[in-house]
Design goal:
Shape: globular
CATH superfamily: Formyl transferase, N-terminal domain
CATH architecture: 3-Layer(aba) Sandwich
Distance between the termini: 16 Å
Bound molecules: 5-O-phosphono-beta-D-ribofuranosylamine
Length: about 210
Amino acid sequence: MTITNYRIAVLLSGSGSNLQALIDARATGTLPAEIALVVCDRAAAYGIQRALSNNIPAIFAPLNRPRHGPSRAAWELQLADLINLFAVDLVLLSGFMRVLSASFLERCYAPVINQHPALLPDGGGENVTVDGITIPALRGAHVVADALRLGLPITGCTIHRATPIVDDGPILARASVPVLPGDDEAVLHERIKAEERRLIVEVVARLAGEAM
Ligand code: GRF
């Protein structure tokens, strides 16, 4: 196994198949990074089970009972402080269904990157051109359905540095997939996620290599 002290935190809300790709890549020696922490805001998310069954420290950090619990701003700062305690080198938003503000990004010592299941352009903008095809840049929480609704010929995935602007920030990697006749949201999302799982291992390995 590769010896490394490059540590990552993965924040998720869902199935965690991207986390699993990182766990598998680490196990086979293709990822020189340690998954030091998984944070999940939904108790039912399968991703937290993946962390627990692989002996990865996992923390349940829901934003709930806003009238009684901490305010959203306080929750974000607590979350950043918690992540900082684990002394990670990178924070990965991997299907974490909460928008995190500038205060969170500023409070985190480590850079924060985000996985987005659609193609985003370099430098922001309304359109993105990939493989000679120009399509609208899809942002928000329903981009797989949006790609189908708009009848796009291609869609894909992007990994980018997180900034206070949602689904924006310097692009680290991108991959396209075709939208095929008969696709529904689940089928198309799974085609995108297959690329996301490949890409996230590449990107984290690259960032770990650059940091060594
Ligand atoms: C991915 O499509 C990611 O881009 C999006 O949420 C999904 C997470 O998938 N933000 P999984 O939980 O890793 O399977």
